[in-house]
Give the backbone structure.
Amino acid sequence: MRGAKTSAGPACRSALRAEGHRAGCAVFCSLVGLVPLFVWPASGHSAEERSFPNIVLILADDLGYGDVQCYNPRRGKIATPNLDRLAAEGMRFTDGHSSSGVCSPSRYTLLTGRYHWRTKLQAGIVGVFGDPLIAPDRLTIAGLAQQRGYRTACIGKWHLGRDWGIPRGQRALFEFGQATPDITPEHRAAWQAVFSKPFGDGPTTRGFDEYFGTDVPNWPPYCFIENERTVGIPSEFLARELLTAHLASLQGPALPGWRLEPILPAMGDRACEFIARQAKSRQPFLLYLPLTSPHTPLAVNEPWKGKSGLGLAYADFVMETDAVVGRVLDAIAAAGIAERTLVFLTSDNGCAPYIGAAELESKGHFPSGPLRGYKGDVWEGGHRVPFVVRWPGVVRPGSVCSQLVHQADVMATLAEVWGLTLPASAGEDSFSLLPLLKGSQRPVREHAVSCAANGVAGLRKGRWKLVFQPDPQAQTRVQLYDLAEDLGETRNLAADKPAVVSELETLMEKLIADGRSTPGPPQRNDVEVTIHKRPMAAAATKPSRAKK
C-alpha cells in the first residue's frame, strides 16, 4: 500500500497512516478479524496492536540455495532438519532473490525495500569501519514496525556501517590488513578513546529499539556491540593463529582472549532471551536476526565438528546454523506464541566458493543446487536464495510458490499486514507478498533486479534474464538467458532475441530513471546509475557445475 507523499525519513514516518478506505480495512479484517479503526495509535499497546503478529526475520549469511535439503534433495548432502521443518510448516519460495551476490547491499534492500544500486554502493560492500549506508531519513522495516507499537530488536551481524567516531588521521591505528604490528601505547590510547564512547548512526538510529551482535565477525573490532557500545574495550590485537583463510580476515582491535566460536551461539542465546521476554509483554515484537553463519569465520563448535560427515568445516557450520534456527523456532513454541508469529527465513546471497565449494561438489554436495555461480556472481547461484515464510492460519503448511519474489518485498508485505500506507519515498522497489502467502497464484511483481559484487546487473522478467555485461565468446554486449529452459544459464541467446534484449534494456532504463519499480511518483536515486558495467574476468563467464 502506498501514499502519495514524497518526503522522507522523519517526515515519512509522520506521514504513515493506517488505511482509512474500505479496501485497506477489508484486507486488515480478513487477516485478524477485527473491526477496523480509522485512527491507530503509534504508541501504547491497544487490543488491536496486540493482535498483530510478532515478526521474526532470520537472515543467514552465505547460505547457498543448495545448502538446504528441501531445496536440493537430490544433490544436497548436508542435513538441515530445522530449515526443512520451517518449510514444511510454511511456504517455500523457489524463485526468491537477494538484491546482490554479496552482503551489505542485500541487507540494505531487505531492511528498506529499495534496491541497493540506487545508493552510493554501486559495487562491493561496506568496508571495515565503514560509514553508514542507510540514510538517517530512510524508513526501514523496523521504523515501520515502531509505527504499529512494536518492540524492535536487531541481534546479529549489522554490516551496514556506523559513525565509528575515529578521528581523521587516525585510521592507520585501526586498520592493518593481515599484518600484526607490535602494539604501542598510541594504539591503546586511540582504541580507548573510540571504544569508550557510543557509536553513531547504528541500528538503534535506524528503527531498532535494541541491538546486540558483531558488526562483521571476521573483521575488527573483535568484540560484541550492544546498543552502540562495545561490550568491553578492545585493547589487544587478535591472536595471529586466528588470521587464516577460513577464520578472521583482518587484523585489528580485539578484546583480550577473544575467540570466534562463541559468536554464533551468543546470537542464538540473545534471540531466545528476547523472544521469551517479549512473549510475556503485551507488546508485539519484530526481531531481525542476521546470523553470522555459515559465513567465515568457520568457527565450528565442538558438538558440530565432523557432524556432516563430509570432512569440511563449512558443511558442519551449516548444520550448526540449522541448529540455531531450530533453537529460535523452539523458543517461539515454548513461549506459546507460534500461532501468532510470522517467521521469514532467507540468506543474503549464495554460498562462497572459497570455503571449499569445489571439494563439496566432489563429495556430491552442490551448494548452488542446479544454479550457475556462487556468492558474488550475477548468475542465479549468487542471488537466488532460500526464502521461507511461516504464518500459521494464513500460510498453508508445506506449500511451494514458484512466483518471482525479492527480499525487497518484505517491507510492503509488512505494511499490508499492518494496514499501513507506505510513503512514496519508502519501499520504492517493494511489492507485497501477502496475496501469495494467502494462496494466490498470480504474480505480485513482473520483474526484479539483482547484481553481482562488481555491480553488474541482472534483470529478470518472466522467463528472461538479461545480464548487463558483454560475452566475449558470443561477441554480444549483453547476455540473455531463458531460465524456463536453461536454469543453469549455459546458452546466451542475446544474438537470437534482439527484440527481447531491446525490451529489457528499455525496462531497465525506466527503472533507473523513475527511481522506483513500484507504482507511484518518480523518486531520485542517490547517485547517477549506469546500466552497462565492465566485463567480468573470462573465467567468471563460464558456467559452473550447473547440470541437474
